[in-house]
């Protein structure tokens, strides 16, 4: 896929692609806890919306990726890595110094993805999935409990 053909648009009208957002988060309720405090971008290949990401300003120096999702049909085509680079560039343009992201401690594929893209593990949000979701969530046969945090210095 030619990444130059992808169009990245900041969503201004609250027409959020909930189907895509749900690929990276388990419930609409969880998404709505951060969505309206984020800057949300959609990614188009010309005809269809194929990805989305949400950026949350933690403070003057730190921005967090709250959600990043690629449509199932477009996964494993390096679009996620391309989006991390786009996010890194956006963060630098906005004078942020640190980019962070969180994922389940059981999500080894996700952790490896972020590490391959320049992030390093630095903290854990204990009991995050127990405290923030009404029902247990399982991934790879294990219940999600803690969120690991990864960061990248810009």
Characterise the protein shown here.
This protein is an alpha+beta fold. It is built from five helices and nine strands. The protein has one domain (3-153): Gcn5-related N-acetyltransferase (GNAT) (Aminopeptidase, 3-Layer(aba) Sandwich). The two termini are 27 Å apart.
Count of helix runs = 5
The neighbouring-strand order within the major sheet is 1-2-3-4-5-9-6
What share of the residues lie within helices? Answer: 25-40%
DSSP summary, beta strand count: 9
Terminal residue distance: 27 Å
Q: Structural class, please? A: alpha+beta
> What does the average pLDDT come to?
94
Low-confidence stretches: none
SSE run: EHHEEEHEHEHEEE
CATH A-level architecture:
3-Layer(aba) Sandwich
The CATH homologous superfamily is named Gcn5-related N-acetyltransferase (GNAT)
């Amino acid at each position: 896929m030619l990444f130059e053909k992808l169009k990245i648009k900041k969503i201004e009208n609250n027409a959020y692609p909930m189907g895509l957002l749900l690929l990276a988060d388990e419930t609409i309720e969880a998404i709505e806890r951060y969505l309206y405090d984020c800057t949300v971008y959609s990614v188009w290949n010309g005809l269809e919306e194929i990805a989305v990401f949400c950026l949350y300003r933690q403070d003057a120096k730190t921005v967090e990726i709250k959600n990043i999702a690629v449509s199932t049909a477009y996964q494993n085509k390096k679009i996620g890595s391309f989006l991390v680079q786009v996010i890194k560039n956006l963060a630098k343009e906005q004078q942020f110094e640190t980019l962070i992201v969180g994922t389940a401690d059981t999500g080894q594929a996700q952790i490896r993805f972020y590490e391959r893209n320049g992030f390093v593990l630095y903290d854990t949000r204990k009991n995050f999935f127990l405290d923030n979701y009404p029902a247990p969530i399982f991934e790879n046969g294990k219940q999600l409990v803690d969120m690991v945090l990864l960061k990248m210095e810009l």
